[in-house]
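Figure S7 source data.
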Amino acid sequence: MGVVHARNITVAYGAFKVIENLEMHIEEGEFIVLLGPSGCGKSTLLNCVAGLQEVVEGQIWIGENNVTWAAPKDRGIGMVFQSYALYPRMTVRENLSFGLRMSGMAKPEIAERVARAADILQIENLLDRRPSELSGGQRQRVAIGRALVRDVEVFLFDEPLSNLDAKLRTELRVEIKKLHHDLGSTMIYVTHDQIEALTLADKIAVMYKGVIQQFAPPKEVYARPANRFVAGFVGSPAMNFIEARVVDAKAMTVKTEGGTKISLAGYAAERAFVDGQRVEVGVRPEQWIVDEAPEGAVSLDTVISVVEPMGPESLIWAKTGNTTITAKVLDDTGYDEDQPLQVHFLPEQISVFDLKSGKRM
Ligand code: ADP
Ligand code: MG
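Tokens for the predicted adenosine-5'-diphosphate complex:
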């Protein structure tokens, strides 16, 4: 029942096509995160599933039903917005029960469902308060409760934690994950926050300019980004990119922008290197090895510009040619500004992208 399928949908605002021929298939019970920068079309896609946005082409299926033209209330979905969207004059209990009362459900059944939702979300003691008497986190719990009482197959969340402070955001994030674990419902969750995506998702759909760039489990998105955009967007501090030119395609030897020849032998390429091709070598800050080079490692000479302590670890900013790289280290003793530093990486761990197309090599 909770399978969601966007079939070849196109969405336009006037003449401007925000989404074109998009295909997305979500299995029952999956937690899917739509991740991407502001304006990339995440809310638009979610609203198409919710029935708040019409598609100009294609279809939306939920379970066995083609819901492309169905009203939001008839789609078996519950939606939670960033702005909570609670009725300010109603108590929490009334907010939770309003939709059910409108649908003509019997009172005892309503009371039972409200009690169950309040129990799951731990808001029993708030039932007689109004939204203005609640904190942001409590308001968002009530908003989630409103979807919960309706017993929906599919939960849709649009940046539900964005209005909360950092501590509450983390707390409620964990609760949403637990809720998914307990209910097993399909959930589609929109965010621009990569930490939320990496922590919550079974699969992340990374979006850019209305196009799904990669649709894969978080670990795969992180370890094997499909293209340059995904590589740069996911990961903090961001992946380092070093421009280079292929000088020997067979041996996977490239010459960096700084003039160093390095062999990427060991890199599991999906596309063949071509002589003369311009590429970007992508190394995550934690993939740099700053002490002894292990067997098969590639080395680069740098000069340290800044050492930045970050509590349990430190970030070393260093220059090689015109490129600044950042290396994560656990212990920063012995690394000083303006000192030379040789850094290393293992080709099998890193990413390489074609400079022109941005595609993973
Ligand atoms: P996101 O949720 O990823 O931030 P949206 O789906 O809200 O992005 O918007 C995608 C694009 O569509 C943006 O360029 C935005 O400006 C445009 N857009 C969104 N809503 C409307 C609208 N009602 N009318 C015209 N353009 C819109
Ligand atoms: Mg949005």
